[in-house]
Structure formats: structure tokens, C-alpha cells
Automatic annotation (TrEMBL):
<feature type="transmembrane region" description="Helical">
    <location>
        <begin position="46"/>
        <end position="67"/>
    </location>
</feature>
<protein>
    <submittedName>
        <fullName>Diguanylate cyclase</fullName>
    </submittedName>
</protein>
<keyword id="KW-1133">Transmembrane helix</keyword>
<dbReference type="InterPro" id="IPR050366">
    <property type="entry name" value="BP-dependent_transpt_permease"/>
</dbReference>
<keyword id="KW-0472">Membrane</keyword>
<feature type="domain" description="ABC transmembrane type-1">
    <location>
        <begin position="106"/>
        <end position="294"/>
    </location>
</feature>
<dbReference type="InterPro" id="IPR035906">
    <property type="entry name" value="MetI-like_sf"/>
</dbReference>
<dbReference type="GO" id="GO:0055085">
    <property type="term" value="P:transmembrane transport"/>
</dbReference>
<keyword id="KW-0812">Transmembrane</keyword>
<feature type="region of interest" description="Disordered">
    <location>
        <begin position="1"/>
        <end position="23"/>
    </location>
</feature>
<dbReference type="GO" id="GO:0005886">
    <property type="term" value="C:plasma membrane"/>
</dbReference>
<comment type="similarity">
    <text>Belongs to the binding-protein-dependent transport system permease family.</text>
</comment>
<dbReference type="Pfam" id="PF12911">
    <property type="entry name" value="OppC_N"/>
</dbReference>
<dbReference type="Pfam" id="PF00528">
    <property type="entry name" value="BPD_transp_1"/>
</dbReference>
<dbReference type="InterPro" id="IPR025966">
    <property type="entry name" value="OppC_N"/>
</dbReference>
<dbReference type="InterPro" id="IPR000515">
    <property type="entry name" value="MetI-like"/>
</dbReference>
<feature type="transmembrane region" description="Helical">
    <location>
        <begin position="144"/>
        <end position="163"/>
    </location>
</feature>
Length: 306
């Protein structure tokens, strides 16, 4: 019997390397994620997306410095004024500066999106890993995911706010509930697929504990699709957050949000056409930035697998 060479299989703590005529399972096309240093977000579309998202976040964080007025300040004799050097986006129906409210609205919306989506990703990923390892847990989690996916986002949001009342917390809960099944099923599917690869089978054949194989081989190779879905989910969460605020079941007034500013502009576009421009640009830039990041990560995965 001819000896074969181990390709890419990591040594298992407490196990002896194979010797003599014992055949070793070759790693084959083992994903190279753990040992590679790729920077898809520092070039091309990825860099552009990062810059766009960072610009919006910086504008929101620096709102107290950038905004010419407080978001709730009512300015004398400034009802529905058009754009000017004093009010770049004009004023609203109750004499407040639209630019200031847009900048402060970024803070509220970004806080919800960038906390709720990662929280949903972490909880969903944990559920997916557990589901892939235990049959009973798999049945239970899949049925829970079916229930969550049965409700459209706005129907779930309306039902929740009917119980708790409007606010930022219900928006966050809705976003988390929508992300749970997406990440749960993604991680479950990816984990089951990686477990069948030769280098994972080799580690199991050498007596590696399940937890070690999961931590050393499976989870690092599941991380890439999770990152892609995270970027996509953030762009979707921007729409969900804005829609809930637009129809009045989100953040309570007078606290500004992009959706509420956009909703208030609908009835006053004839007086101040620039009223809606600010929140629309911010929403578009956020979504575009997240989409570009997702595209860069996806293209990098395709190149790695080619």
C-alpha cells in the first residue's frame, strides 16, 4: 500500500500522526479562508462601499457639530422655507431645520440597524450551528423559522407595535426576528456542507472531538457567507426601519428619523421641494454602500473558489 501525504489537515491535540502503511485522507480542495489574508474591502467596490457607509455614520456621529440647529428647535418666521445658505434643505411645517433633523435622524436609524442586524446574525448563526449538530434541535428551530418567515415584515411590525407601542425597541425586535431565520438556515446549510468536505472527514477519522472540528475547520469556513449576508441584511434593514418610521409605527415624534422626516415631506413638497432630498440621499447612500460591500465579498469568494 502506498503512503499518501496529508494536505492541509491540521494536527489534532493528543493524536499521533499516521505512520507506516496507514492511508491518510487527503484534504483535497480545502477552503483556504483560515490561512489567507485577503482584503476585498480595501479595493474597488468594497472600498467605495466602506467609504459611503463610513461617511453616513460619521455625519450622524458628528451631527451636533455639523447641524446648524438643534433637531427640535423651532425657528421664528421660518415656516416651509426653501433652500438657502441659512437652511440648506429648507425648513419644515413647524419651522425646524430639515438638514439638522436629517443629520440627527441618521443617528437613530444607524443605531437600530447596526445593533439589530448583528444581534440577529449572532443569534441566528448560533441557532444554525446547534440545528446542524442535533436532530431534535433541528426540527424545533426549523419550525420556529417557518413561523417567523410566514409573517411579512410590516405585518409583524404592526402586530408588535400594537402590543408595545411605537418606538426604537419594536423596530429592533422586528429586524432581529426577520434576520434569525435568514442566518439560521444559511449557517445550518453551510455547516452541513463543510462537514462533508474531505479535510473535515480526515480530522474526524483521526479522532478529533466534534467541538474541535467545529471550531477549527467548520466555523472559519462558514464565516464568509455570513459576512456577505450581513452586508445584504443591513441594506434591507435600512428599508425596514425607514418604512416603519414612514408609516408612523417607529420612533416617536419629535425625535427625528429618516423615515419620519420623509413622511412629513410628502404633504409639503409643493412648498419646499428639497424637503425629501436629504433623507432620500442618506437612505440611498447607506443601501448602496452595503450592497457594494456585499458584492465585493461575493466576488472575492468566487475568485477564491475558482
Amino acid at each position: 500500500m502506498t503512503d499518501t501525504t496529508v494536505a492541509g489537515a491540521a494536527a489534532v491535540p493528543g493524536s499521533e500522526p499516521p505512520s507506516g502503511d496507514v492511508p491518510v485522507i487527503a484534504a483535497g480542495n480545502a477552503p483556504a479562508f483560515p490561512g489567507r489574508r485577503r482584503t476585498p474591502l480595501l479595493r474597488g467596490r468594497g472600498l467605495t462601499g466602506l467609504i459611503l457607509v463610513a461617511a453616513v455614520i460619521v455625519a450622524g456621529v458628528a451631527a451636533p457639530l455639523l447641524a446648524p440647529y438643534a433637531p427640535e428647535e423651532q425657528i421664528r418666521n421660518a415656516n416651509l422655507l426653501g433652500p438657502s445658505w441659512q437652511h440648506l434643505l429648507g425648513t419644515d411645517e413647524v419651522n425646524r431645520d430639515v438638514l439638522s433633523r436629517t443629520l440627527y435622524g441618521i443617528r437613530v436609524d444607524a443605531l437600530i440597524v447596526f445593533i439589530a442586524v448583528p444581534a440577529g446574525a449572532v443569534l441566528g448563526s448560533l441557532a444554525g450551528v446547534v440545528s446542524s449538530q442535533f436532530a431534535v434541535a433541528d426540527v424545533v428551530t426549523q419550525r420556529v423559522f417557518d413561523v417567523l418567515l410566514a409573517f411579512p415584515a410590516l405585518i409583524l411590525a404592526i402586530g408588535l407595535t400594537a402590543v408595545t407601542g411605537p418606538g426604537a425597541v419594536p423596530i429592533g425586535v422586528v429586524v432581529v426576528a426577520l434576520e434569525l431565520p435568514l442566518f439560521g438556515r444559511l449557517v445550518r446549510t453551510a455547516t452541513l456542507a463543510v462537514r462533508e468536505l474531505p479535510f473535515v472527514r480526515a480530522a474526524e477519522a483521526m479522532g478529533a472531538p466534534r467541538s474541535w472540528v467545529l471550531r477549527r475547520h467548520v466555523l472559519p469556513n462558514v464565516a464568509e457567507p455570513v459576512l456577505v449576508q450581513l452586508a445584504l441584511s443591513m441594506s434591507g434593514a435600512v428599508f425596514i426601519d425607514s418604512a416603519m418610521n414612514f408609516i408612523g409605527i417607529g420612533v416617536r415624534p419629535p425625535t427625528p428619523s429618516l423615515g419620519s422626516v420623509l413622511a412629513a415631506s410628502v404633504a409639503n413638497l409643493h412648498s419646499n421641494p428639497m424637503y425629501a432630498v436629504g433623507p432620500l440621499i442618506v437612505i440611498a447612500v447607506l443601501v448602496l454602500g452595503c450592497q457594494l460591500i456585499a458584492q465585493a465579498l461575493t466576488a472575492d469568494r468566487r475568485r477564491a473558489g475558482a
